[in-house]
Amino acid sequence: MTSKVLLGIQVIAGLMLIVFGLNKFLHFIPMGEPPAGMGEYLGALFKTGFIFPVIAVIEVTAGVAFVSNKFAPLMVIILMPIIVNAFLAHLFLDPAGIGAAAFILIAMIIIIVRNFGRYREIFKP
User: Fold this and answer.
1) Tell me: the pLDDT tens digits for 41-82?
2) 111 exposure class (CB count in 10 Å sphere: 0-12, 13-18, 19+)
3) Per-domain residue ranges for the chain?
4) Maximal CA-CA distance, the chain
């Protein structure tokens, strides 16, 4: 794939992260009733009182980094545990809603592959 296509995927993922992150604060996307297991899981996260705001700030920050193409490799490292968790939660508890999490996860893998040279120091023995 060309560099422009890969950058386009990164920008689309960034826009999705900004929208989903802002939605955690502003609630402009109506959410239907989740399946029972997903509802219990999300309810437990919500009861902590801090997880959703932290996730929202990280998503918006990463989204801006992806769209501006500044610090994207760093934000992938910070965001990866959140997106893997979202992907697995949808995979096991709500497979019908897995699309966005899967796209963002694939986009993050693409960003890692594009910038693998920047990660070499992390994996040095």
Assistant:
1) 999 999 999 999 999 999 999 999 999 999 999 999 999 999
2) buried
3) 3-27+48-118
4) 48
